[in-house]
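Let us practice reading a record.
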Amino acid sequence: MRMRPNFRSLQAVLGVLLLAACDGGQPRVADTAQKAGPFPAADRPVAKIISSRWSTEEARDRVNEASEVMDKAGIKPGMTVADIGAGEGYYTIRLASRVGKDGRVLAEDIVAEVRDTLAMRVTRERLENVSVRLGAPADPRLPANSFDRVLMVHMYHEIAQPYEFLWRMRPSLKRDGLVIVVDSDRPTQNHGTPPALLRCEFAAVGYAEVARYNMPSAGGYLAAFRPTGTRPEPSAIKACRLS
């Protein structure tokens, strides 16, 4: 049995995983940020990760979900976009097409097996403008000053330490960068996030909501946030309280 084809396939996948370590030489967040804290705990339930798939890709395309989300998010050719909680890559693949050869997509998941499966898909579909990375539950580990958009689709309610996560994510945005959240308007334990709670948690870390749209095609709504002012000290962050 010849092993060379398998070896080449493994090399290709490793190449995809290692691209994220380069990302055009973008700087990482300072090491001192990794030691910051403590952060307040979230005063709300946290949904468990039950699947890397929200719905089938065919069903989502039938209602034009990805195109509508990307349009409302203002994602254009040449942009650099992070797909956080990328799962099986529904948005990763379509983002790669939208940003084109002059753009870049960093797809991230916190489950190693899911990350590896997505890396195989990226390699199989020869998406040279996509890199794949393993994140941490409370830290997306994104390079600083790198992203025009950070996309979080149907996963925000699964973040157990939202204030730390959002705090560590802030430096990754470019000057005019936006965080785009797509979620359902229902309690977090039911795999959604009420818009008022989302707005409060982002505001606690220094983000302002700049747009919100109803998104029936994506099962809920889309909200866009921009960092404002200086990033607060972790000890100054006040947790939002559920009434």
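A brief commentary: The mean pLDDT is 86.
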